[in-house]
Every structure is written in structure tokens, then in C-alpha cells.
Specification:
Structural class: mainly alpha
Distance between the termini: 44 Å
Strand order of the largest sheet: 1-2
Order of helices and strands: HHHHHHEEHHHHHHHHHHH
Shape: globular
Number of helices: 17
Largest sheet: 2 strands, antiparallel
Number of strands: 2
Mean pLDDT: 83
């Protein structure tokens, strides 16, 4: 089917959301206790609705939470709305679309890491080799870089050798490596959806995901990966999110074809914000390591988050300026991840040299 602008805008919103979170991590640091469920509940109990909503909004914008699950939902949606292709043709097409940019981006970020190390060495007089390996900063903490990391990054799946290799070189490109896992699984999931129907398909995916998460939470180890890193890095522990995107594809196809006027999109803006706040509330509830909620996973927040982002995307598309921004971000999402990673290492170098970026 023809490319849908609303899907590009939805992907653009998600990528910009990732960039905002990373900018906060690199400058001011991510929120923690101030957006804890107890703090929000206390504000509500005191009748301070605006205070509670503000804290939830901070959590929505700046906590890592469920962004990856939204991205997996959107990917499932895009694949299911695309032209049906045999598994080999689909994987070849996806590889041709992603791998050249992924490899080039990995090399570009590696070059930026080396260039920043050279700049720090020239300014501080520290040995260049030490600056390359140990001098980088990411999210305000030291970031190690070794030549072997480049090989792990370029190989894509080498990122999943251990927890320490997941975010090597270009850290955000592990999102692409996670999505690559879904590309491999998608043909089998598509067949299951056709044979079982939407409801049974979601039940099967949910049982698989919850069962595997229960095993990991109960102490089962996936090689060198601890519980948190395993739940974050591998598709089976997030299986419901792309499955929801696949099941929702017919509804989104109808909605995308309907279009939206400026008036209708404006009327939908308030519910969209409320849906995102609801997703943030669910995400904040997921922060405590309670066994049940960890087992259920962040997929709980995906549906209200996607519905809110979808309404925001339709609002933006009815206005030329926001439409251009989101369409550009959605159509260049891989390049945006690469550029923001390169800029993150530049920011880290500026911080190590004394720039007061936290005041920004």
C-alpha cells in the first residue's frame, strides 16, 4: 500500500521522544524519586492535581520506560500494513534498507569517539590511548571503547554477546538490532496470526512472553545476562508489543485513510495528552521491582501511549510546520539515532572539559 504519512509521523514522534530522553540523561540526568508512584499518589491525596500531572509528564518525557515497546508496536504495524512478501524477500529487503546505514552510522560514531578523545588529549595532556578507551562520557558516566567493540557493533547480533556489548560504539543502534530480531521472527508470527486469528494470536504471544519473563524473574539465567539486561535486550520478553501492532493494523489502515481536519485533530488533542499521561502513570507504577508487574512487562503502557501518539501525529499533520518536522524525523529515523549518538559523545566531551551543561 502507499506510504502513510501518519505512520511516518508516529515513528517520528517516537524517535524524537527517544532523543529528548537521551538529551535529559546527558545533561540534567534522568528523574528518579521525584516521579515515584508514592510521590505522585501523595500529590493526588493532597488535591494537587497539577503537581501530580506535572510529575507524570516528567516521567513520560524523560524515563526510559516503554519507548522501545512503542517502537516495536510501530514496526509491527508497518510490516503488517506493507505488501505481503515471502520471508526471504522480506528479510532481504529489510537488510538492504537498514544495514548500509547501520554500518555507516557505527563507523561514523566510532570516528566521533576517536576525534573527541583526540580533542580531550590535546586540551588536558592525557595520553590519547587512555582517552580513546576510557575518556568518553555517556549519560554523565564514563563509557569504555575498545577496538573489539567496533566488531561487535558492526556484526549487529554481536551486540547481544553480553550485557556489556549491547550498547557498544553507537549505543542507540541496539534499538535497530532489537528490531532486527523482530524482522527475523515476523514471517512466523504473520503465519500464526493468519491461522489463529487476532485474539488467539495475542493470547499465545502473551503466554510466551509472560512465561519467559516469569522464568527470568524466578532466577533462570540467559547466559551472561542478568534479569534486567535479559528483559530489555531480547524480543521474546517484549513479544506482545509488536504483536499488538500487527493485530491493530486493519484499524490503523482505516483511520489513516480517513484523514483529520484541523478542528477534529484539535478536539482530539486533550484526550491524546491524557492518554500519554495514563501511559506515564502505568510506566511509573512499573518502576518498583514488584514481581507481578515485572512479569507483565511494559506492554501494559503501549496501548494508551500509541493511541495518544497517534492523535498527536494526526494533529501535527494538519499543520504544515509540525508535519514537516515529524515526517522528516520518521523518514530519517535511523540517521537521527546515529546523529544523536555522535552528539551525545560531543556533549560528554564538553562535560569532561568543564562545560556546565546541566544548567541548560
Amino acid at each position: 500500500m502507499p506510504r502513510l504519512g501518519t505512520l511516518d509521523a508516529l515513528r517520528g514522534l517516537t524517535i524524537l521522544w527517544v532523543v529528548v530522553m537521551h538529551f535529559a540523561a546527558d545533561t540534567r540526568g534522568l528523574p528518579a524519586a521525584e516521579v515515584a508512584p508514592g510521590v505522585i499518589a501523595s500529590a493526588l491525596a493532597r488535591g494537587e492535581i497539577a503537581e501530580a500531572l506535572g510529575r507524570v509528564l516528567v516521567g513520560v518525557l524523560f524515563l526510559p520506560g516503554f519507548r522501545l515497546d512503542v517502537l516495536l508496536f510501530v514496526t509491527g504495524l508497518v510490516l503488517e500494513l506493507g505488501r505481503p512478501r515471502p520471508a526471504s524477500a522480506l528479510l532481504a529487503r529489510r537488510a538492504q534498507a537498514i544495514l548500509p546505514g547501520y554500518w555507516l552510522g557505527t563507523l561514523l560514531v566510532a570516528a566521533v569517539i576517536v576525534a573527541c578523545a583526540l580533542a580531550r588529549s590535546m586540551v588536558t595532556g592525557a595520553p590519547f590511548e587512555d582517552e580513546v578507551q576510557f575518556g568518553s562520557r555517556l549519560a554523565r558516566v564514563p563509557y569504555e571503547f575498545a577496538p573489539s567493540h567496533l566488531l561487535y557493533g558492526l556484526s549487529v547480533m554481536g551486540r547481544f554477546t553480553s550485557p556489556g556489548t549491547v550498547q557498544v560504539v553507537a549505543p542507540s543502534l541496539w534499538y535497530i538490532a532489537l528490531i532486527a530480531q523482530f524482522y527475523v521472527a515476523y514471517p512466523a508470527m504473520r503465519t500464526m496470526l493468519r491461522r489463529l486469528g487476532p485474539a488467539a494470536f495475542l493470547v499465545v504471544c502473551g503466554v510466551v512472553m509472560v512465561g519467559l519473563r516469569t522464568l527470568v524473574v524466578s532466577g533462570w539465567r540467559l547466559g551472561p545476562f542478568d534479569t534486567a539486561s535479559a528483559l530489555a535486550a531480547f524480543l521474546p520478553f517484549r513479544l506482545v508489543s509488536p504483536a499488538l501492532g500487527m493485530v491493530a493494523a486493519p484499524w490503523f489502515r482505516r483511520q489513516a485513510g480517513a484523514g483529520a481536519t484541523r478542528l477534529h485533530s484539535t478536539v482530539a488533542l486533550a484526550p491524546a495528552v491524557l492518554l500519554l499521561l495514563l501511559a506515564g502513570w502505568i510506566g511509573s507504577v512499573l518502576l518498583p521491582p514488584t514481581r507481578l508487574l515485572v512479569v507483565l512487562g511494559p506492554s501494559l503502557a503501549v496501548v494508551p501511549a500509541v493511541m495518544g501518539l497517534w492523535a498527536l501525529a494526526r494533529w501535527a499533520l494538519a499543520r504544515s510546520g509540525p508535519a514537516r518536522l515529524l515526517l522528516w524525523a520518521g523518514q530519517t529515523s535511523l540517521a537521527m539515532l546515529v546523529v544523536q549518538d555522535a552528539l551525545r559523545f560531543v556533549v560528554g566531551t564538553a562535560q569532561s572539559l568543564g562545560a556546565p551543561l546541566a544548567q541548560w
